[in-house]
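For the sake of transparency, this paper describes our internal protein records without simplification. The remainder of this section carries one protein's record, kept here as part of the documentation:
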Amino acid sequence: MLDVQTFGPQGGNVLYKALAHPLAVGPILELLAEIKDKRAAVYDPEGYLPTFQGLYPEFRPSFYLTHDSEQVGLPDGLKASPDSGATSRNGQKTALVDVGSLDIDAVVALSFEEGKMSARLQPLLDGVLLHTLGKARLPEKFLKRGRPYLDRHNFATNFAFFRDDGVFSTRLVTANYWSNYGTERPLYWFLLFDEAGRELARWETRAENPASGVIVDSAEIRQRFNLAPFTGQLFIHVLGAAGHDVVKYALDTFGRHGNPSLSVTHDANAWPARRYGSLPAPDQDEQMTVWVQNSHGTSIPAGSLFFNRMGTEEGAAVAEEIPPYATLAVDVGALLPEVRWPAQLEMRAGRHVVRPRYEITQQGRTRIAHLNVEREDLKPDPAIARMPASLGRGILLPFPVPDPRHFEIWLQPNPMTETVRNLPVRVDLYDEEGRQTASHFLGNLPRDFQQAVPLHELAESQGHGDLVYDFRDGGTADGWLHGMLRYRHRTNRHTAETSFGGHIFNTLMTWRNEPQSYAGRPPGLTTRIFLKLGQKLEGKFLRSFCHLLYPASLEGAPDSQTRLYLYGRDGKALAQRDLSLPACGSRLLHPHKLFTPQELTEAGEGGYVLIRDLTCRLFGYHGLENDEGAFSLDHMFGF
């Protein structure tokens, strides 16, 4: 396992992003190669050493230098390299001013400020070589003027699964939402890796205008750079980011040349986790591939990744070593042949990868979705069962319920923290007008439960459902409530699935950081959701749609005052429509029914709908559909 502090829902470690950036990896590896056979001391003025050694464990200095007089003589915690030729001075931290008395060849100052370190240390070194992280700094064009190097806006980065192999193509779609925060035309910097981790291409795209649409199509990239078929990952860096450092996108996967597959997933959480959940076991007629994509510039050792049935610790390891930035297709069914749907699986990833994708092949179609981060920092919290009445039902996970006459709908609650041992939950069902039609207590489910709830047998009509905590039979909760939804067309058997986590929705009273807001402090009572438009693929039209939900933890909220804005790819506002949803209600929206053909033609591919509401926080699930009944579905993103 990589012993690194990475990211979490309340923010992250920018140092991790700076040390793991593909442009930083090469200079850092060159530094390590240069000092490999030398006796080295480390000076760590900002506390970078744990994260640095986590990412680059081969760095084994023999001495630890400190400028803190109260730290001198304390244990240094270093593991000296066996071939360094030097022994740490009794395992103690050494005063920086005494560096001249050490038998060393080099000092490594863990700082990106080369000039500052040189001025501070050169008078003490008497010819000993000084190395810093200065050569691992990003080029100046990546940096915001006047901000510290490790300002989070300098590292607005993310990864995307990216493929164009002759059978499947991918398309990343987003918008220049950075213009909402003052950066009108940010620069998108891309680096594409193939399956072996080799660089295939790098390029830049300037956002055309404020609010303009952004598309990265794998087929276009393959043609532009004359690439052979590939399956790999796309590294994305937004230069000039403002407001926050989260790179959000929707990622469509299309079957080509007669393959009927169609699916969508979304941006990765840009931090690697110790464990991942929301992974259904394959059914008897399914083949499941987990796309393991190394997020770092060092190899993942063989046996470091492990899959097991949820609730057990026994499983199977991935035998292959995975090179830097490489992609490995892991046949999970072959690793765990005895574990079948509706069991759930767990991936122990050791912080080597950001959110992995899984792909299920069934009856000639594939569908792709993502695993979710299993939190390691949360524990059961008795306060959740004692929330005040002003928070109503408290934490809930909303999801669409399409017409049960036409769709099968399966719900699986997901254990999503390492410590949770039970899930006391129920599901509340509502029609489109916000009237509750049913409520079903699912029980105090153990961590290793193996069931999927057939909501199509419980729902009376189209609408939505909420997964909520229910402590009538005891149990505990950690607040990280998750569920996986599987939707299957009754006629053509096309299937899509998605997963998400719960929040408190639309209460004036707050609880810790809930109700969450995309921008600002809680309570989050506004909406800004991105809905892409459709497109043409191989002569056929793919139309977009949205299940727009008004989840409400507390009854009695007023109707929404929602406005839909149509934007062209150039960022020009073209049209708007007004809409009102009742609390706990929902609507199935189709842009091609809301806007005129002329308006949609003017918007073009790359145009989008912005869903805005200043009175409540709405939630949505989006997808594409064609005339043959194929569809995709995933939850939408806001900004």
About this structure: The longest helix spans residues 22-34. The helical segments are 14-20, 22-34, 49-55, 114-125, 218-224, 332-335, 591-594, 597-603.
